[in-house]
Amino acid sequence: MGDVDVGDDDDEAMLLEPEPHIFDNPDVSSIPEDVDSPDVAEISDDVDIPDIPDDAEGFSIGPETTANYVKIIQSAKTILWNGPMGMFEDARFAAGTNAVAQAVVDATQKNGAKSIIGGGDSVKALNKAGLGDKVTFMSTGGGASLEYLEGKTLPGLTALEA
């Protein structure tokens, strides 16, 4: 793998070489394979990431990636979600985030999975979809949630312990 040009994105090229252990098990981890893009209508609204034209942008995960993520979530026992799948505030790009949100709720409600949602945008997406009260735990502190899971000391908790 390596750097992949992701079209007219303000961020750096997407790095497709994560830490080696992150994707050891392809059954429980995945990177996006396609995106929804309003800029590639002449190709289709859905485009594989390496095929995004230089003057186009991707705004959410595409249907192939959505289906892959839903499949992974359906069999999960613990789900940590930090960040929506794309620009869910715009109905044209909400499908990926909404499908993932519903999959998380289904895994929680039907399969007994523990679902931990961190980050204000994730909480907003779940609430916008009417699903916020159907997960195990939500926190608007996404970065802090991840740091806590990493075992880092959080100033707010340290102050409470004093």
Helix % is 25-40%
Q: For this entry, what is the oligomeric state of its chains?
A: single chain
What is the name of the CATH class?
Alpha Beta
User: How do the strands line up in the largest sheet?
Assistant: 4-3-5
Tell me the distance between the termini. Answer: 47 Å
Uncertain runs with pLDDT below 50, 5 residues or more? Answer: 9-16, 40-44
Spell out the CATH superfamily: Phosphoglycerate kinase, N-terminal domain
Mean pLDDT: 79
Would you count the extended β strands for me? 8
Secondary structure class reads alpha/beta
CATH architecture: 3-Layer(aba) Sandwich
CATH topology: Rossmann fold
**Radius of gyration, in angstroms, nearest whole number:** 17 Å
- Approximately how much beta-strand content do the residues carry? 15-25%
> Helix segment count?
5
- Domain count: 1
Order of helices and strands: EEEEEHEHEHEHH
Mass-distribution shape: globular
The biggest beta sheet is recorded as: 3 strands, antiparallel
